[in-house]
Automatic annotation (TrEMBL):
Coiled coil: none
InterPro entries on file: Atg1-like (IPR045269), Kinase-like_dom_sf (IPR011009), Prot_kinase_dom (IPR000719), Ser/Thr_kinase_AS (IPR008271)
Database matches in CDD domains: STKc_PknB_like
Source organism of this protein record: Paramecium tetraurelia
Residue span(s) of domain Protein kinase: 12-283
Entry's Gene Ontology BP terms: regulation of autophagy
Keywords: ATP-binding, Kinase, Nucleotide-binding, Transferase
Protein name from the UniProt record: Protein kinase domain-containing protein
Matches recorded under SUPFAM superfamilies: Protein kinase-like (PK-like) (SSF56112)
Length: 569
């Protein structure tokens, strides 16, 4: 277990790992001087993305002077040579995304009063950002934390200012970099070079729509090109919000509907500003604090639903695209650039195997093992998705000659002058094959990153009430290492959890020998357990990527034979 760390007046509780973002790890925190306050500390590596970190610190130092119940309170920013510590208020009620997911799972709708209450609090929080001339640029449910006040009511608080910018005049359009989360990003972030604080008004409009319509997004797009087309269409066909179905005054429903339409206008000039929002008809109506049901214990069905919902939105692997990338090249005919393509194809094949296992495992546990322990399920999913994400990071490193994201073992194997020359030639190769490979890797990595973040958050919550196995703190420590790109370690943890208890639970049941899905799950588990011993990268030039993935055309008899040949029964 990691030792607690004293930093000025604060104790960073390294034993209390709370979560991880793109650039920092969050731990519990304590201070004698602030003993009545619930604290946490975000720890950043000072050398990572220095420009971005400096910008976030500048914003946080301004927020340190702000006292707004709807913004996460910043208590201190401590800069040291190697690390930066951001001590802030700790919220214990999760985030708005989790609350929305829970309502969706329970088939419940937010009431008109709840929608009005949440929207008002978000706007009041943003008003303080507006007053200090900050654009957030990443307003989304996961960046809105929740604190329960003990009376069934909640306080929502904006957080995560890493994408924020300070501007002289945030009401005027300015040339800025394109950032944000795609589903909540305003048209200007995709289609134009300039935008103002009204880009965040659009994001809130999307959130209001989700609150009003059971967590559904206001579009059906599943890919970036489809989303871009939706945004383009807003220019000629303004968004029309359907009628709300909640019980309550028709006037309130019409006010919410009208406000969503205005906030999701294509033109920034047509959207209300932050000063205008609180003056809108919805917030001129009398409002009272709303009651929210507490979230119960998550069940296996709930957990699997969230993964299935996520994969449905992300369309992680396009089969045709994947097969093109993983096409096997004969060793005697490939050029230097093709050699890298072949190596990357092996990375992709292993990633695809882990993706298929994740999907099939979810499906089969729901069908055949509905009482499977949700904590054990999340342990397995975190290992499988972690392996996939880390191996795609390595593939990205080879595609774009970024050796700093290649794990140490792979770097030792290939870090020589000949490889560097090959990688440089590959980087300058603009053939259709190579360009398509690079595009696919970037797309797959981005989507896998989202899945891994979800898996980490799920297991972190469950670890607070589960102590199995005895060395689970080591697994927790692994997740806290941001710059770790070692993929094999997630495979080894999967083997460990499998050998502890899980292989006894998933023992072969001969009565299911005609169930193709069940047989496929057992074969995929076996393949994943042996993935790095049977297909070592040391012998990459001898291997066919198609041998790594499971042939979709196998018959029941062939699957049954493979099950009988398993080593890890």
């Amino acid at each position: 277990m990691e030792q607690d760390q004293k930093v000025e007046d604060f104790v960073i509780k390294k034993s209390e790992f709370l979560g991880k973002g793109q650039y920092g790890v969050v731990y519990g925190c304590y201070s004698e001087k602030l003993k009545d306050q619930k604290l946490c500390a975000k720890v950043l590596q000072a050398q990572i993305e220095k420009g971005l970190i400096d910008r976030e610190i500048k914003i946080l130092e301004q927020l340190n002077k702000v006292d707004n119940p709807n913004l996460v309170k910043i208590y201190r920013v401590i800069k040291e040579e190697r690390q930066i510590y951001i001590v802030m208020e700790r919220c214990t009620g999760g985030d708005l995304k989790q609350l929305m997911d829970q309502y969706q799972l329970s088939k419940k709708s937010f009431t008109l009063e709840q929608i009005q209450d949440i929207a008002r609090q978000i706007i009041l929080g943003y008003k303080s950002l507006f007053d200090i001339k900050v654009i957030h640029r990443d307003i989304k449910p996961a960046n809105i934390l929740i604190e329960n006040n003990g009376n069934g009511q909640i306080i929502v608080k904006l957080t995560d200012f890493g994408m924020g910018r300070m501007l002289d005049d945030i009401t005027k359009k300015q040339v800025l970099t394109k950032v944000g989360t795609p589903a909540y990003a305003a048209p200007q972030l995709y289609l134009e070079d300039q935008y103002s604080s009204k880009c965040d008004v659009y994001s809130l409009g999307v959130i209001l729509y989700q609150l009003a319509f059971n967590n559904r997004l206001p579009f059906t797009a599943k890919t970036i090109p489809e989303l871009t087309q939706f945004l383009k269409d807003l220019k000629v066909k303004p968004f029309q919000c359907p009628e709300l179905t909640q019980e309550g005054p028709q006037q309130t429903k019409k006010a919410i509907q009208s406000l969503i339409n205005k906030m999701m206008q294509f033109s920034e000039e047509a959207r209300p500003g932050w000063d205008d929002l609180l003056k809108s008809e919805l917030f001129e109506m009398p409002a009272k604090p709303s009651n929210f049901d507490s979230q119960g214990e998550m069940k296996l069905l709930d957990s699997i639903f969230l993964y299935q919902q996520q994969s449905g939105q992300q369309q992680y692997f396009n089969e045709v695209k994947f097969r093109a990338v993983c096409k096997f090249a004969n060793q005697n005919k490939i050029t230097k650039a093709d050699r890298i393509n072949h190596l990357v194809s092996l990375f992709l094949a292993k990633a695809e195997l882990s993706f298929n296992l994740s999907q099939v495992l979810s499906e089969q546990l729901l069908i055949s093992f509905p009482y499977f322990n949700v904590y054990h399920f999340e342990l397995l999913q975190t290992c499988i998705i972690g392996y996939r994400y880390k191996i795609l990071m390595n593939a990205f490193g080879f595609c774009f000659n970024c050796l700093d994201v290649i794990c140490e073992e792979m770097r030792k194997m290939y870090d020589n002058q000949a490889l560097k020359q090959t990688l440089q030639e590959y980087l300058n190769d603009h053939s259709e094959w190579t360009e398509q490979t690079k595009e696919n890797i970037s797309e797959f990595l981005n989507m896998s990153n989202k899945a891994f973040t979800h898996a980490e958050n799920q297991i972190i919550k469950l670890m607070r009430t589960n102590t199995y196995p005895h060395n689970i703190q080591n697994f927790q420590k692994l997740m806290s290492i941001i710059d770790n790109t070692e993929f094999k370690i997630y495979g080894r943890w999967f083997q460990f959890f499998w050998k502890q208890d899980l292989r006894k639970i998933l023992v072969y049941d001969k009565s299911k020998q005609y169930d193709v899905g069940y047989l496929k799950m057992l074969v995929l588990i076996e393949k994943f357990l042996n993935i790095d011993t049977e297909f070592p990268f040391e012998k990459y030039s001898e291997q066919d990527p198609q041998q790594i993935v499971l042939n979709e055309n196998l018959t029941k008899q062939q699957l049954e034979t493979l099950v009988q040949q398993r080593k890890n029964v």
